[in-house]
Amino acid sequence: MNMAEKMNWKRVLAVVLIASTALIFTGCGAKGKSESDLKSTKTFTGKYIVSAKYAAKQVGKKNVLFVDCRGDKFANKGTVKGAIATTWQDLCTCGPEYGEAGDKDWGKIPSPADLSKRLSKLGMTKTKNIYLVGLTLTGWGDDARVLWELNAAGFTKARIVNGGYEGLVDAGVKTQKGASTPKPAAVKITKINYDHTITTEQLQKNYKDYKIIDVRTKAEYNGATKYDEAKGGHLPGAIFIPYTDFFRDNNTLISKTDIDAMMKKAGITKNDKIVTYCTGGIRSAYIQLVLQMSGYKHTYNYDQSYWRWCRVGKVSTTKVK
């Protein structure tokens, strides 16, 4: 094995390590809000999300595809009957040819031709009703990162499940051990819509135009480097609203009434240009979609997020209590 091959393997192992430790750390002590903390008991609804009860009834139906975005490791312990498995890393520029987390081209939406090939192998076509399954409080909301990419690629029939895999189990969904084998199908993507995406360069150029929301944990915001970040801290002036604050303690999203109250308290209006970020654009993709569904039209997920920003931009080390 030559030196270049050894470096590539090191990068691959780094990506795997980041992916595995991310779920472990994020899930530790993650708590949603109890009903007593909330203003409304209404269920969150939106064009990109369905209830676990509804999704469970779609299993086995014609032209329906369940995709377990937790990956094979979790699917092997239990997944939706008939579901295939993938991860957000499988559908973005996370391979060794792009370097490692924080590098210039790492962690983005692939080119139309590249993404077409990846989705073709999985049989994820635009004509299918796709239900994406992930983890909410105990994970990073990987399903939403995949949906965010599919939306950008022109998919209109893909949805995430409110409550994630836990919600589906509670709803009595049919399950199996191990993911099903994907049935390849031709997928052709001609362009990517970047209306709800922001790059490092765009953010640096017009930084003052945006209200920036850091959805990581308090420890991360205050400087902890849990996922091999180049340095600790947060984007200057970033408003701290943790990802978990958008969920009830039963893994489902809080109501739009409560989201509006949370945004108002943070000084954010529906007319603001809002950037969400986390470590690698996964949790922040979930919150971008939630805010979009809640009527905040000018919302942008910073896909490379803190992994990239702390390499090339200024960071703040102020702390929140």
Walk me through this protein's architecture.
By secondary structure, this protein is an alpha/beta fold. It has two domains: 32-176, Rhodanese-like domain (Oxidized Rhodanese, domain 1, 3-Layer(aba) Sandwich), CATH 3.40.250.10; 197-312, Oxidized Rhodanese, domain 1 (3-Layer(aba) Sandwich). It has helices at residues 3-27, 52-56, 72-75, 112-122, 142-152, 164-170, 200-205, 218-221, 256-265, 283-293, 305-312, and strands at residues 49-51, 64-68, 79-80, 84-85, 129-133, 158-162, 175-176, 197-198, 211-214, 239-240, 274-277, 299-302. The radius of gyration is 19 Å and the shape is globular. Residues 1-29 have low confidence and may be disordered.
Give a quick rundown of the structure.
This protein is of the alpha/beta class and 321 residues long. It has helices spanning 3-27, 52-56, 72-75, 112-122, 142-152, 164-170, 200-205, 218-221, 256-265, 283-293, 305-312, and strands spanning 49-51, 64-68, 79-80, 84-85, 129-133, 158-162, 175-176, 197-198, 211-214, 239-240, 274-277, 299-302.
